[in-house]
Amino acid sequence: MNDTNITVAHGSPRISDRIDNVLREHGSKSSGSLHAIASAAGRCGLVAILLGFGFYKFTAVEAEAIAPLVSNSPFMGWLYAVGSVRTVSAGVGVTEILVAALLAVHRWWPKAALLGGLAGMLMFLTTLSFAFTTPAATSDPELLGFLVKDLFLFAASAHAASASLRAAAYRARTGVTK
After folding, report:
1. Looking at the keywords, is Oxidoreductase present (predicted)?
2. pTM of this prediction?
3. Backbone phi, then psi, for 77, in 5-degree steps?
């Protein structure tokens, strides 16, 4: 039976008709509000994750944990030639904290937040590359899961960069902070 032929008892309109009516009346407004909530929540979550990861990079445990990933990377392995395991980890932590700070100022300085979003994208692309440069990464489900989460963080960074670009362009056109 096709769901379009199903009606509610007592001659009431179908549920799908009611939903369609609500969407026609409120869809655009609700969509904009939902998008704003999702953008703000995504940015706040990304900032919180970057701050947490960034500060954790100052611990010996995390410095040792990332060493096999970083040392096998053609993009980052060279850092161990100029710094110790702890120093390199701290440098990564400082970078994550700076990116978080740039993202956090979106409301006041969208150009700075755009830079933070782009830096986050580059950072997460680099860490995603560890899945291909770290021996046995694809055969270790725990490590692979750890790295795959960076795909979502890359997407959040891209969304944040896009929103900041839109806000910076709006400000440049109008002189008004959106």
Report:
1. no
2. 0.82
3. -55, -35
